[in-house]
Amino acid sequence: MHLETEAEALIVSERDKPRSAPKSLWRRVPVCVYLLAGLGMLVSSLSSLSSVVRSTGLTMAEGHTLMSVDYEIFGKVQGVFFRKYTQAEGKKLGLVGWVQNTDQGTVQGQIQGPTVQVQIMQEWLKTKGSPKSRIDKAKFHNEKVIPKLEHKDFQIVK
C-alpha cells in the first residue's frame, strides 16, 4: 500500500510531461518504481540474513546441516504459557521437536532443524521465552548433527 502511494506520487500528468518523450515511457514509471522498491526489500532481506549468518559464525552451506539439541530452561517458566510460545517460535523458525513441563518446575525439550534456525531458537530460549516468563538459566546438551529429522512437527507434551 505504501509503495502504491509513492508510485502514484511519481506519475507525471499528461500536461506536465515533455512533448518529446514517448507515451509508453510515462506508463512504465510506476513499474520501475515497484521494481526498485522490490529490489531494495530484497537487498535488505539478504543483508539481514547475512548478519544472522555472520553472528553465528557459519557459512551458508553449514546453515543447511541438520542438528538436534536437548534443552532445559530454569526460572519462572511454568504457568506462563512458556510451552505454547516455545512451540509457536519453533514452528515459526521451521523447527520440529517437543516441549514439556517437568516435576522440578522447569521446562525441557528437544529442537531439531537447520543449524542456523536451531541456534536462533537457542538464543530465544535463553533470553526471551513467553512474555510473562523469567528465564534464570538455559542448559543445552546432547547437541549433535543428524542425517534427518526425527519428528514431524513441534509438539507440546503433557
Question: Can you tell me about this structure?
Answer:
- Helix content is 42%, strand content 25%.
- It is α+β, with helices and mostly antiparallel strands and 158 residues long.
- It has a domain at 78-156: 2-Layer Sandwich (Alpha-Beta Plaits), CATH 3.30.70.
- A five-stranded mixed sheet has the order 4-1-3-2-5, with helices on one face.
- The chain is globular, with a radius of gyration of 24 Å.
- The protein starts with a helix and ends with a strand.
- Mean pLDDT is 78; it is low at 1-13 and 45-61.
- The active site is at 83, 101.
- It comes from Phascolarctos cinereus (Koala).
- It holds the Pfam family Acylphosphatase.
- One of its GO terms (molecular function) is acylphosphatase activity.
Short description:
By secondary structure, this protein is of the alpha+beta class. It has a domain of about 80 residues: Alpha-Beta Plaits.
The major pleated sheet works out as: 5 strands, mixed
- What is the strand arrangement across the widest sheet? 4-1-3-2-5
Count, helices: 4
Task: Identify low-pLDDT runs.
Answer: 1-13, 45-61
Radius of gyration: 24 Å
Sheet/helix structural class = alpha+beta
* Inertia-based shape: globular
- Average pLDDT rating: 78
Work out the number of β strands. Answer: 5
